Amino acid sequence: MELERTEGIASFEEAENYINRIPRFTKKNTMEDTRAFLHRLGDPDRRMRIIHVAGTNGKGSVCAYLSSILRAAGYRTALFTSPHLVDIRERFSVDGELMSREDFLRIFQKIHGMLDREAPEGNRYHPSYFEYLFFMAMVYFGEKEPDFCILETGLGGRLDATNAVSRKELAVITHISLDHVEYLGDTVEKIAGEKAGILQAGTRAVFWDTCPETTDLFRRRASKLGISAQSVSEKDIIFSKFNGKTIDFSLRTGYHGEGDIHGEDDIHGRTNLSLRTIASYQVENCALAVRSIEALGEVFDSCGKAVTWEHVRQGVRECFWAGRMEEVLPEVYVDGAHNEDGVRAFLETVAWDGCEGGRSLLFGVVKDKNYGRMAQLLTESGLFGRIAAAPMDTQRTLSGEKLGELFGRYAGSFRVYEDVASAFWALLHRGQGERIYIAGSLYLAGEMKELISDDKFRRRIEEIPSQP
């Protein structure tokens, strides 16, 4: 019934609205269903060199570093990530360029036209929200023919739609922590088991050494598949130094003699890198991406185009990933911390930011996260002189009433506002040198970026008198 009502979709906005309505009338499909529809699309994945990235936190950042390094070396890259912050087309990029609205509509229509209207209603296959976007990415990237296609899982790994691809050059697993426990399990070992589902026979693997339990699980899974799995840990990061707006660090290279990046390191056995960010957690994500590039050495040889350490340094230096300690206005930083582990990483960065003028925080969170623990970590850190909390513009948001109850449990200066714009406006009236941080949800990061991009709101900001 829903399919018939969508005939004649003729604009980007109509296509986007349809996709946003999908969760109302679909259920999760089996991996067999996903693979079958990918086959109907002509198996575009079989013509791609795929790098698959799973994990709890840092997936998008690792994808961004991989893409930036590969592009610095002259490779064309396609990137499928989630969620988007402002524009749904952020999920699809080729060489850093978003899919056009025209291509979005055209590919949406192609997939919609292949849905089975003749089967009995109970047997009709319809992609879920994430599957539809994944299929659009596969069709689009198949047309663009990039050298490498980088896919970020949406949720988990084993049953994620992105795991329907037939083969991969590399599987990468980032830091593991408790998140989405209702779907993935209530221990890091259970969650790691779901993430490990992206490992595949004949595929290289690199993973972050979160803890002995997860590392042992990944190694056992790799051994069963007959593949090599390299770990990356804090021991591989020799030092790091914060320089105000950048971070320098030194990384061990040629892990166990397996590295195959061309050119000399700065110092034998290690290379020095510089990140254009204040986010300390990006050192971990960058290290994992660089080790992944090392693991692809034989692939680069077969392509006939070497990746050198200068390419690595350039790609790392030029990488940008929106919403991750992003300075959206002078001394206003938006971070995508949206779970307990992400908040810990966020606070580590805040603690070493060198800010002497005081700090304030704008917080919003969705109701299916462990928001109690997140709020406790934020308030007990003692890093914020003022905390403003507000419900976000999404049905998943924690209400203002619940936010008031939440922060009322802890000592400190806090206030709940009716919406994000009001909360931010209040924080903007600040003392000299005071820094504003915005964290708690990727929805909040997206809402803030959209708010700040509004010309009327920016003009209001510019009219605020400077503080003595």
Count of helices? 17
* Count of DSSP strands: 17
Q: List the domain count as a whole number.
A: 2
Largest sheet: 8 strands, mixed
CATH topology of the largest domain: UDP-N-acetylmuramoyl-L-alanine:D-glutamate ligase
Radius of gyration: 23 Å
What's the overall average pLDDT, rounded? 89
Spatial order of the strands forming the largest sheet: 4-3-2-5-1-6-7-8
- Subunit organisation of the chains: single chain
How far apart lie the N and C ends?
A: 63 Å
Low-confidence segments, given as residue ranges, are 1-5, 255-259
Q: Percent range for helical residues?
A: 25-40%
CATH class (first level) name of the largest domain: Alpha Beta
Overall CATH architecture of the largest domain: 3-Layer(aba) Sandwich
Structural class: alpha/beta
Strand proportion, as a percent range, falls in 15-25%
CATH superfamily of the largest domain: Mur-like, catalytic domain
General form = globular
Question: Quick gist of this model?
Answer:
This protein is α/β, with parallel strands linked by helices.
What do you see in this structure?
- This protein has helices spanning 12-21, 31-40, 59-72, 101-113, 129-144, 181-184, 188-195, 212-225, 282-295, 297-303, 309-318, 340-351, 371-380, 400-408, 420-428, 442-453, 455-462; strands at 50-54, 77-80, 92-94, 97-98, 148-152, 170-173, 204-208, 229-232, 237-242, 247-252, 270-275, 326-329, 332-334, 359-363, 386-389, 414-416, 435-439.
- The model is unreliable at 1-5 and 255-259 (pLDDT under 50).
- The strands form three sheets. It has an eight-stranded mixed β-sheet, sandwiched between helices. The protein has a six-stranded mixed β-sheet with strand order 12-13-17-14-15-16, with helices on both faces. It has a three-stranded antiparallel β-sheet with strand order 9-10-11.
- The protein folds into two domains: 4-318, 3-Layer(aba) Sandwich (UDP-N-acetylmuramoyl-L-alanine:D-glutamate ligase), CATH 3.40.1190; 326-460, Mur ligase, C-terminal domain (Protein-Tyrosine Phosphatase, Chain A).
- It has 17 helices and 17 strands.
- The termini are far apart.
- β12 and β13 (332-334) form a beta hairpin.
